[in-house]
Amino acid sequence: MKPLRGSITDQAPADPAATDNMLASQPIGYWAGFVHEAVTRRLRDAMARIDVTQPQYWVLNRVTGGPTAPSREEVTVQLTPLAGGQYEIPRVIDQLLHRGWLRIDAEQNLHLTDAGEAARVRLRGLATELRAEVHKDISDEEYVAALKVLRTMIANVQGDGSS
Fold first, then answer.
1. Cβ(105)–Cβ(111) below 8 Å
2. What is the pTM assigned to this prediction?
3. Most buried of 1, 43, 50, 102 (most Cβ within 10 A)?
4. Which of 104, 84, 85, 82 is CA-nearest to residue 93?
């Protein structure tokens, strides 16, 4: 018999060897953290082999990703929540300026150089290849369903605290 939606299942200790019939009792924090670490490690290892970091890729995407050229401060504010501290993104911007992948215009806005755009395109190809590796044997429908479940869990824990 299948439990009803919203019914309470006992929380079991994290078990990487849990069988399919035990997964409903597994802690989401463990599994979400484990997949985050594994995917991030794989991506960062692949990028390191071509002397690029994930935060550099974030900056390249952000600089090219808006309707207008962003300022250094805008990029820093937008990406700092993803980064390992408040100083990481400003350092990355400096690295990319030094590398010649970014330039600053007279209004102090950031732009990709031709070399920066070439790097961004190359990194997007790498990220797409790694995405295919991570998503092997997972349909788009299964992936969407998993993300919907995660979004619901986020909403559940970010509520007003009254529950």
1. yes
2. 0.79
3. 102
4. 104
